[in-house]
Design goal:
CATH superfamily of chain A: P-loop containing nucleotide triphosphate hydrolases
Number of strands of chain A: 11
Largest interface: A-B, 50 and 48 residues
CATH architecture of one domain in chain B: 3-Layer(aba) Sandwich
CATH class of one domain in chain B: Alpha Beta
Largest sheet of chain A: 7 strands, mixed
Order of helices and strands of chain A: EEEHEEHEHHHHHEHEHEEHHEH
CATH architecture of chain A: 3-Layer(aba) Sandwich
Strand order of the largest sheet of chain B: 6-7-8-3-9-10-12-11
Shape of chain B: globular
Oligomer: heterodimer
Helix content of chain B: 25-40%
Shape of chain A: globular
């Protein structure tokens, strides 16, 4: 059994709109090992959610998708769509930002949790029910057996998100994708849910992709971090290395733009000028060039290729942070 | 005399099945040129309190004094002039601006309503657009719908600041902005404060943003202020178990510094039926019998802030 669980190569996603094609993903590679927690971080429109959805086989109407998704050695694009759907259903679970969008408001949660398990794993309703009670207690819902009959509106926001986590785990997946799963929650509840996800990943040797706009959420809870901007992964590597020594000017600027809870009051923030790019009007070249402090004329003709400055790190930049520092030191 | 003095502010809302006291006896003062943050989780009453100060809608009881003059309970006509010194910006700037109106008209609206002639207003508007970082000749004739969230927040800030307010109430002004743009808006608000000697009532759920921008902070829980004081004191030595839990829950963008302290258990109780005594006691790791019977009053702590906890002295450092 190989160490690699998921391998995405050359993922592209183009969505035709009235204003022209939106290039939501412009060629992305991503590898997730068994038991690895990968943080996918970026601002709105960076393509992080599109990538998560592409992995679970969901796409916007009319979107043109290309690239390979290999799950545990099986190429999901080369098998029949029904087969791919079955594999995804059993082996990948996903949790979204808004649990009310994921849950059917008029169906008791018990049936919603067991539905996929009955369908995908062919177990009986009774078996699935017993498992659902067990799952609900695992995700921290007290009095689980009696709550199976309850409807989503009878739960608080934090508990609802626990229900969708139980739903995502019902088929005992190898990979859990948490797409902004704590963004809508208050900070004390966010902490509870993040603790829960970390614990579940450890106990079940789950691999996890945590999609977030919030670098702080990613920092303490992932092994690997991939930073997205304008539809590509601009930088990736072990989380500590990426945060301690960012190579891409965007990662560095983003880290400097975060207000820090340990900084003295009225510390001036280092803002990034301009706005995130309009994906329907991406020009050629590096999508960050227009806002980048290191940008040079050679950034514009072609998007920088993926390079490996050191083992297990990737970078897409012609003028990374270090080279710029060296250039400035030179007389 | 404080610039703004809010005393025992109460605001109730009727909802299906009962009444919610969203703001339940809130008192604070705001000095000239000072930023006071109201911080707390959803449903704590921070926005209700901020809006009540501007009378949108006004409180059910309590006093709001601007330079000593009472605003609460008086008909809107009588307080029109005073209320001009209070301006507000919102979380969703895009929906706070009429998408079909031109930027110059949006920013001038308050001045025109106030009776200024169009020529004088236009001069003021263009100067203000420049000072929020927008080029009037480039953006002035465009419509609000053409701008991004961050740009719209700049326009909203210009629209508020052109009235030369003494107090700007900011309700989650950066909560829906991307990090890179959020920093631009925070810096702009700091500039406005410096240049115009502005006082700000800054409503936010984000403790990191609050730390960066505020001089003092009031932590709210279920309609009450549980701790209030200087940002340094409250953040470095919280004296309420809720403040402690909030600070422990904030994720830090440092992979070597995982979350500290135990996570807070449970969810917010129903605001329709808040716990007796201390409203935080149902989730408080330090709760004792007295917490269910006696409402804790705000008391002065050795560090200078005030805390409403019977056991404030025992809160973990």
């Amino acid at each position: 059994m190989s160490d690699v669980l998921l391998e995405v190569t050359g993922a592209r996603c183009e969505i035709p709109t009235a204003r022209g094609d939106v290039i939501a993903l412009g060629g992305v590679d991503l590898t997730v090992r068994r038991g690895e927690i990968v943080g996918l971080v970026g601002e709105s429109g960076s393509g992080k959610s599109t990538l998560a959805k592409l992995i679970v086989g969901a796409k916007a109407p009319g979107a043109r998708i290309s690239g390979r998704v290999v799950l545990d050695g099986e190429d999901l694009e080369s098998v029949k769509p029904e087969t791919a759907r079955g594999i995804r259903g059993r082996r990948i679970g996903i949790v979204f930002q808004d649990p009310m969008m994921a849950l059917n408001p008029v169906v008791p949660i018990g049936r919603q949790i067991t539905e996929a398990a009955v369908h995908n794993r062919g177990i009986t309703r009774e078996q699935a029910r017993a498992e659902a009670v067990e799952l609900l207690s695992q995700v921290g819902i007290p009095d689980a057996a009696s709550r199976l009959r309850h409807y989503p509106h009878q739960f608080s926001g934090g508990l609802r998100q626990r229900v969708t986590i139980a739903m995502a785990l019902a088929c005992d997946p190898d990979l859990l994708i948490a797409d902004e799963a704590t963004t809508a929650l208050d900070v004390t509840v966010q902490r509870q849910i993040l603790d829960l996800l970390s614990r579940l990943a450890l106990e079940r040797s789950l691999a996890m992709i945590m999609v977030s706009h919030d670098l702080s959420v990613i920092a303490g809870r992932t092994h690997t971090t991939a930073v997205m901007y304008g539809g590509i992964i601009v930088e990736s590597g072990p989380t500590a290395a990426v945060f301690d020594a960012p190579q891409h000017p965007y990662t560095k600027a983003l880290l400097e733009a975060i207000p820090r809870i340990d900084a003295p009051p009225h510390s001036r923030l280092t803002a990034i000028p301009g706005n995130p790019p309009d994906l329907s009007r991406l020009g050629t070249g590096c999508p960050f060039a227009a806002r980048c402090a290191n940008a040079q004329p050679d950034c514009l003709p072609v998007v920088p290729p993926v390079t490996h400055p050191v083992a297990d790190r990737t970078l897409r930049c012609y003028h990374p942070v270090d080279s710029f520092a060296d250039a400035r030191k030179a007389p | 005399m404080a610039l703004l003095e809010v005393t025992d502010l109460v605001k109730r809302f009727k909802v299906a099945g009962g009444t919610i006291e969203a703001s339940s006896g809130v008192s604070f003062t705001l000095e000239r040129g000072e930023t006071l943050a109201l911080v707390g989780e959803s449903g704590c009453g921070k926005s209700t309190t901020g809006r009540a100060v501007l009378q949108v809608p006004g409180p059910d009881s309590g006093s709001i004094r601007l330079r000593g003059e009472e605003l609460a309970g008086r008909p809107p006509r009588e307080t029109k002039r005073q209320r001009r010194a209070l301006q507000m910006i919102f979380q969703d700037a895009r929906s706070s601006l009429n998408p079909r109106r031109r930027v110059r008209d949006l920013v001038a609206e308050g001045l025109i309503i106030g009776g200024m002639n169009r020529v004088d207003a236009a001069t003021r508007v263009d100067a203000m657009l420049r000072s929020v970082g927008l080029e009037p000749d480039r953006v002035g004739e465009r419509r609000a719908s053409e701008f991004s969230g961050g740009q719209c927040q700049r326009i909203a800030i210009a629209r508020a600041m052109v009235m030369q307010p003494e107090i700007l109430v900011c309700d989650e002004p950066v909560a829906s902005l991307d990090v890179s743009v959020q920093a631009q808006v925070i810096n702009l608000l700091e500039d406005m404060k410096q240049q115009h000697g502005l006082a700000m009532l800054f409503i936010s759920h984000d403790l990191s943003v609050v730390r960066t921008i505020s001089d003092r902070v009031a932590v709210m829980y279920l309609g009450r202020i549980v701790e209030i004081g200087g940002v340094e004191e409250v953040y470095s030595r919280p004296r309420h178990p809720y403040t402690r839990a909030l600070l422990d829950s904030v994720p830090v963008a440092d992979p070597h510094q995982p979350s500290t302290g135990p996570a807070l258990a449970g969810d917010l109780p129903s605001p329709m039926n808040p716990p007796s005594g201390c409203r935080f006691r149902t989730r408080c790791p330090m709760a004792q019998e007295i917490c269910a019977t006696a409402v804790p009053e705000l008391r002065v702590m050795p560090e200078g802030q005030r805390s409403a906890c019977h056991f404030a002295e025992q809160v973990a450092a």
